[in-house]
Amino acid sequence: MSLRITCPTCGPRSAEEWIHGEMFDVPDSITNTDEWDVDRGFFHNNPEGLVQEAWFHLYGCRRWVVITRDTRTDEILS
Amino acid sequence: MNEFWEAKVALQWGTLKPSYDVVIIGGGGHGLATAYNLALRHGITNVAVLERSYIGGGNSGRNTTVIRSNYGKPEPVRFYQRSLELYRDLEAETERWMMHDERGLWWITHTEAGRRTEIARAEINRAFGADTRFAEPEEIEREIPGINMNPAGEFPVLGGSFHAGGATARHDRVVWALAEGAMRAGVDIIQGVEVTGLKVENNQIVGVETTQGSIATETVVSAVGGHATSVADMAGVRLPIRTHPLQAFVTNHYEGTFDAIVASIDLGFYVSQTARGEMLGGAHIDPQPSYSRRSDHHFISSIAKRITALFPFMGDLRVLRQWTGSCDMSPDYSPVMGRTPVDGFLITTGWGTWGFKAIPAGGEAMAELVATGTTPELIAPFSLDRFAKDRALADRGSSGTH
């Protein structure tokens, strides 16, 4: 579903104006630096539930905004 | 055409037993094809297929039913060509009609760079057994009905590749036929049972927890679509997967005949005509990872602009239905099949936008892996450890949706 993300400067704008940015989160259990690099480069948490993510308002004010979203419903909580 | 075909399928639902040789999670095409091949090729029938909802209700029933092998790298071309050939014989083998129709796929381009890509695609396809050739714009104009050779004045058709093996089949019927064949051979297929946990001892799978009780087993195959990450998490396995919604639509009945499958990579869509006469179009991947299956208006308005630019006749049609599936996307746009770091836990995932066409070969290879314990050469390049070994198979240009 196409999201509407609220920008602090531009107000609510549709997702087509934004670039999605994932917050990478390598688990603490990975201590080997090679394994850490592989995980950082390719692996994802892909959670079913709340996720914190960054969106870049490319076709607007060109600022990053961090939101919390529920991946089960696409509801934006903050 | 018999629309009551499903009534003729002899589906005998199983009841859950306390232990199995093999438990397959996910009653979609890949799970059922694995069970089918285990039972019929390898004689392993003490198998359960656990489906949370109903069989074929996930991505197996939400895809756009295209079967093709025109990929851009040797390993996928070989793998999907095997699948395409198995599809040709699947109706005879299962004695079920799947509306399999080999009508050829046009993969057209609107840029000079795309022209070079398609020439290369045709060469690599022929080298590894797929029937693809480069086509000049004159041939495309002659062969594709109703095409506008200069869409919107900005995207002239500059050529493309013609993949003669491109086909479509009715996805539900593929699922039902495989389920019926597996059930007849003694496989328990159980609907409405959800996996809630996986038991691992000393890095070996020993059991599955479900909403209908525990099952003891030493082999679990996760053939889950959409929720693959959550199931792998239960065994402590991390996956290189992000799940994105993917949308598609059909129009009402088109009176003409559109006897081709056409994909335009630069305009970002593909279109074909279903057996009912509807025009089937897709697809759009939402940018954010999500498990939501809500469709939206942005998709339908943007794809309508692009499709009617190339096919003006579609402007007279109405959108009948649109829907969304959950696509498991891997970083290199190739599937992930085989072993995981946990013994006895096998996965077949990352089927993003290319899962339906791979059902027969994917099931055949996963069954062989379970039965013999060795990874078949055909799927060895798609292993989970390819990322750590720097052997990723980047093939985004062949996904058809980007």
Short description:
The complex is a heterodimer of chains A (78) and B (402). With 78 residues, chain A is mainly beta.
**Helical coverage of chain B, percent range:** 25-40%
Largest interface: A-B, 30 and 28 residues
Number of helices, where a helix is a run of at least 4 consecutive DSSP H or I residues of chain A: 1
Cα shape of chain B: globular
Number of domains of chain B: 2
Q: Can you tell me the CATH class of the largest domain in chain B?
A: Alpha Beta
Query: Using only CA atoms, what is the Rg of chain A?
Result: 15 Å
Q: Unreliable runs of chain A, pLDDT <50, ≥5 residues?
A: none
CATH superfamily of the largest domain in chain B: FAD/NAD(P)-binding domain
What number of structural domains do the residues of chain A give?
Answer: 1
DSSP, total strands of chain B: 20
Average pLDDT score of chain B: 92
Which sequence of SSEs, written as H and E, runs from N to C of chain A?
EEEHEEE
State the end-to-end distance of chain A.
18 Å
CATH topology of chain A: Folate-binding fold
Query: Helical content of chain A, roughly?
Result: 10-25%
Largest sheet of chain B: 8 strands, mixed
Sheet of most strands of chain A: 4 strands, antiparallel
Description:
- In chain A, strand 5 and strand 6 form a beta hairpin.
- Chain A is built from 1 helix and 6 strands; from the N terminus they run βββαβββ.
- The mean pLDDT of chain A is 92.
- Chain A has one domain: Folate-binding fold (2-Layer Sandwich).
- Chain A is mainly beta and 78 residues long.
- Chain B is globular, with a radius of gyration of 21 Å.
- Chain B has 402 residues and is an alpha+beta fold.
- In chain B, helix 1 runs parallel beside helix 5 (171-184).
- Chain B has helices at residues 29-42, 74-94, 112-127, 137-143, 171-184, 228-234, 297-310, 359-372, and strands spanning 22-25, 47-51, 66-67, 101-102, 105-109, 132-135, 159-163, 167-168, 188-191, 195-201, 204-210, 213-216, 220-222, 242-253, 261-264, 269-273, 278-285, 319-329, 336-339, 345-349.
- In chain B, the strands form 4 sheets. In chain B, strands 6-7-5-15-16-17-14-18 form an 8-stranded mixed β-sheet, with helices on both faces. Chain B has a 6-stranded mixed β-sheet with strand order 9-2-1-13-20-19, sandwiched between helices. In chain B, strands 3-8-4 form a 3-stranded antiparallel β-sheet.
- The model of chain B has no long low-confidence stretch (mean pLDDT 92).
- The A-B interface holds A 1-3, 14-16, 18-20, 22, 27, 34-35, 38-39, 41-48, 51, 53, 69, 71-74 and B 227, 229-230, 238-243, 245, 286-292, 294-299, 324, 331, 387-388, 392.
